[in-house]
């Protein structure tokens, strides 16, 4: 009896997958679902695709181009018709996109860029670099161009980590009065950033500012600063635009962050995919989605 | 000969002492009371995981699920505090106090740990595989429960567990100190302790001499889960926020502390005291490398080398014995 059911199950599964090929299916492949920000990006992409009337499925590449490659192979063979894609690596992900392109499946990159202009159908990107240039300007303004500061970077080997840090430093490094006393990794993780901040405050009692590569780390650093009773002395800067941080900016606890728009990126990518199904062939290669500075003055708009 | 064996017994203590001397020479910030409390507060979580897992490793087992159980129990603790528990079918909503949520989290950790022990004894699954499966299950459950988003702002009462001071000592340090005491008593003074060493030393002999192997294993894995949950409550309280990916890779730091402390991965040999020194050594190393602003890439290399060195010295000593 068991075997009969098993065969029946296979048969049914075979049937249902055939039926659904009539309507295009959309895959959403996200670099990692370990980070709340990317969960929002991935889930909004799925929701947008469903809102437009298409079946959508979410895949987690676990920050690993090899896992991503497996996903792409499975997607191509199981008959998905478009991929909304958040790549794990600017170079490593190109080969995966090309595989899909060969199979005639359009790929729309979201948030993170790949270093190729003819692989993806279109790339809808958050401008991390320019966003952090703006943070750098705000940082200089708030510290009046002089003082000691530390930086908490994201993850070693991650593009956005360096895009953000470079954007910030193009401005801040021009001011000789601003001294970088420590630069450590916080792995985009709240707890790690808190512990690193605790130790950096011990090493440098005189710091006046900290720039964190994302908002989770800004919240961890703030927690450490608050416990040490230094919230008056040290100004915290983040990046992402997390709700908790916007709230803390309104309360005057964190100075500034860069607001990114994952939902806008997800919506644009889903809309493009649907337009592709309806026959549109040409898309702009790069669609920059701006990053807005959130500080005490502008926080009420977010 | 006596002094020689004493030297061998306390080699990790000597290593820790040397490390602290070096750090206090190269950084004038290391040996300040503020920084030392910092280090102790930071290691309190790893201590919880490590002393729990020491019992498991003494029985020649391993528990890879402690980091994931930490994440899940922390999330559940935060979720219960913030949202309570709703039963829509009964039109019932249960709110949780700080104590209630903490106990519920510990109950979850204990149950998952017990499940580990049960799977291992009932189906003879190797502990490595059973707890590896639990690692992914618990991590997945924590993402499901939190929907991948942090649960934050848990109230000042709850925040006090991680932030408050009692008689001049941070509360997390008190908590880990009390737990250490309990575990030292278990290993040194109780028949459970003797059973654990006996099972790790020679399981067949232990079976023949009538030691209730199954029950002892259930208990050590359940205790390891409970300690992971306590660690989860501590992390969550320190951040005033539960992160769905909290505790990622913590099992590795914990195993490192145990190994540095001289506990043998093949069971039967080692002590809670050794693990404490191992955990402090890793904490001091992490802290010192940041104080000196060493590049994060080098930090990983240095940590790996220290662990390797500790194990090599241990092995050489065993051979010379």
TrEMBL record, chain A:
The keyword Lyase does not apply. Keywords: Signal. CDD domains: PBP1_TmRBP-like. Gene3D superfamilies: 3.40.50.2300. Residues 26-281 form the Periplasmic binding protein domain. It is found in: Cell envelope. It comes from the Bacteria. Belongs to the bacterial solute-binding protein 2 family. PANTHER family: D-ALLOSE-BINDING PERIPLASMIC PROTEIN-RELATED (PTHR46847:SF1). This is D-ribose ABC transporter substrate-binding protein.
């Amino acid at each position: 009896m068991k075997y009969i059911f098993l065969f029946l199950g296979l048969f049914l599964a075979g049937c249902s997958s055939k039926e659904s090929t009539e309507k295009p299916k959309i895959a959403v492949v996200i670099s990692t679902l370990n980070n709340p920000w990317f969960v929002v990006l991935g889930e909004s992409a799925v929701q947008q695709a469903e809102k437009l009337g298409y079946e959508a499925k979410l895949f987690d590449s676990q920050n690993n181009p090899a896992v991503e490659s497996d996903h792409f192979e499975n997607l191509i063979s199981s008959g998905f018709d478009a991929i909304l894609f958040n790549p794990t690596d600017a170079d490593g992900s190109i080969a995966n996109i090309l595989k899909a392109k060969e199979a005639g499946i359009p790929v729309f990159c979201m948030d993170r860029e790949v270093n190729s202009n003819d692989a993806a159908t279109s790339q809808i990107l958050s401008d991390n670099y320019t966003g952090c240039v703006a943070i750098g300007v705000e940082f200089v303004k708030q510290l009046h161009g002089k003082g000691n500061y530390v930086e908490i970077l994201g993850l070693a080997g991650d593009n956005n980590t360096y895009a953000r840090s470079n954007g910030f430093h193009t401005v801040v490094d021009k001011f000789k009065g601003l001294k970088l006393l420590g630069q450590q990794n916080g792995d985009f993780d709240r707890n790690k950033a808190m512990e690193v901040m605790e130790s950096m405050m011990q090493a440098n009692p005189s710091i006046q500012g900290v720039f964190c590569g994302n908002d989770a780390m800004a919240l961890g650093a703030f927690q450490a600063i608050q416990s040490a009773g230094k919230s008056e002395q040290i100004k915290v800067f983040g990046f992402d635009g997390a709700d908790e941080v916007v709230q803390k900016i309104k309360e005057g606890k964190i100075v500034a962050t860069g607001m990114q728009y994952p939902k806008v990126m997800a919506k644009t990518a889903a809309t493009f995919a649907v337009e592709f199904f309806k026959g549109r062939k040409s898309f702009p290669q790069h669609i920059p989605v701006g990053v807005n500075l959130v500080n005490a003055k502008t926080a009420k708009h977010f | 000969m006596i002094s020689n064996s004493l030297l061998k017994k306390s080699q990790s203590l000597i290593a820790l002492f040397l490390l602290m001397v070096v750090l206090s020479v190269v950084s004038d910030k290391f040996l300040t009371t503020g920084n030392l409390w910092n280090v102790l507060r930071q290691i309190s979580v790893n201590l919880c995981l490590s002393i729990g897992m020491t019992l498991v490793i003494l029985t020649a087992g391993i528990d890879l699920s402690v980091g994931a159980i930490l994440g899940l129990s922390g999330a559940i603790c935060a979720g219960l505090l913030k949202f309570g528990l709703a039963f829509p079918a009964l039109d019932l909503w249960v709110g949780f106090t700080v104590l209630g949520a903490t106990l519920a989290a510990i109950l979850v950790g204990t149950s998952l740990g017990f499940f580990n022990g049960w799977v291992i004894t009932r189906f003879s699954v190797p502990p490595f595989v059973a707890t590896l499966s639990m690692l992914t299950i618990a991590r997945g459950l924590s993402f499901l429960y939190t929907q991948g988003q942090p649960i934050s702002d848990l109230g000042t009462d709850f925040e006090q567990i991680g932030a408050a001071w009692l008689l001049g000592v941070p509360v997390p340090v008190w908590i880990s100190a009390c737990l250490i005491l309990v575990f030292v008593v278990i290993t040194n003074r109780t028949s459970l302790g003797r059973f654990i060493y006996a099972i790790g030393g020679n399981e067949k002999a232990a079976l023949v001499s009538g030691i209730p192997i199954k029950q002892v294993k259930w208990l050590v894995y359940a205790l390891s889960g409970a300690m992971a949950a306590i660690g989860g409550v501590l992390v969550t309280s320190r951040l005033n926020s539960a992160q769905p990916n909290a505790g990622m890779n913590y099992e590795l730091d914990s195993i490192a502390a145990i190994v540095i402390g001289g506990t043998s991965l093949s069971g039967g040999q080692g002590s809670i005291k050794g693990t404490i020194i191992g955990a402090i050594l890793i904490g001091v190393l992490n802290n010192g490398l940041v104080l000196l602003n060493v590049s994060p890439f080098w930090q990983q290399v240095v940590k790996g080398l220290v662990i390797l060195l500790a194990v090599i010295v241990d092995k050489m000593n065993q051979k010379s014995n």
